User: Fold this.
Amino acid sequence: MIERIELKNVISRIEEPRRFIQVLAGPRQVGKTTLVLQALDQVAIPHKYESADGVSAGNAVWISQIWEEVRIRMKISTQKEFLLVIDEVQKITNWSETIKKEWDADTRMGLNIKLILLGSSRLLIQQGLTESLAGRFEIIHLSHWTYSEMQSAFGWNLQQYIYFGGYPGSAPLIGDETRWKEYIRNALVETSISKDILMLTRVDKPALLRNLFELGARFSGQILSYTKMLGQLLDAGNTTTLAHYLKLLNDSGLLGGLEKYSGSAVNKRASSPKFQVYNNALLSLQLDTTFEKAQKEHDLWGRLFESTVGSHLLNNAIKSDYQLLYWHAGNYEIDFLMKKKEQMIGLEVKSGVCSENLGMSLFKGQYPDAKLLLVGTNGTPLDEFLKINPIELF
Assistant:
């Protein structure tokens, strides 16, 4: 079984002195539960793993009950420390208030009970943490699976990763693309939208939210103004509504909207977003084609190629301390812009015959201290770029 790179970090946090609640956060189907179970197999600290999957939502007492059981076990066995892991914690109503009460009680009593929380809804986990547990937690982010992980676990080549993306649960289904798309649509997309957004947040136009996701995923890697979106979406609201729905999709690990870099915060906020899926499977899901045919369509494969770079950068931006933007001036543009404090890296993606990009020259003229990187033809090969942690480029 593959061990994700975050496993060492989780084990290290378990073994250090009790300071913070550890939270494993990430989108659905990236292996959060598997990772924490792997960690439990490798640590010596006594532990208890519980899942709220079958617990009724209103049973907040359940958390206090299992916590008290741990306290009793520590007292009887005279153990000096204990680890409690609660999975699917977001399914319990007011879970964060109960966690806060029990954690603070242990702190007052000097009980060395460490805690790991994880759940399938990144959106709800984030809401609970910010509302009740400020200053008491650290987040370990798990992103979608990388090319290296899909290659190691399933023997995928680069072309398969470009088209099918990085959902490990879908890997056995790629031989039957109709079945694969149904799995991505029903088990991942619809579950994320229904359970992670619509059940947790007020959404007045759920059909519009779904249509926005489909539009954004189909145009991944492309800039689309909110005005143009309104013209293509049924039951469209206003630009504020679309921006809000796009944020919800982003927080759920489905679809991001990159902002334009202009050097001005005001202009950046008012810019048209550049859509970017977090996983290329979400783009391929929208296409009326097959893996074999897509490779023969030059323009389409170029879009998939660029979106693969974007998803790699976007997933790592969450875990690392950099912003992912795009740059555009008139008819000139740079595909992606990484920004870390005052440092900037412009990235251009080329999947076919490499032609001169005047946008890179213009960008360099405006920002002479910025680095420039070409990915693809006549630049860093895509398979090599996907094995680099982008934060190392600074």
Summary: Residues 177-198 form the longest helix (22 residues). The mean pLDDT is 91.
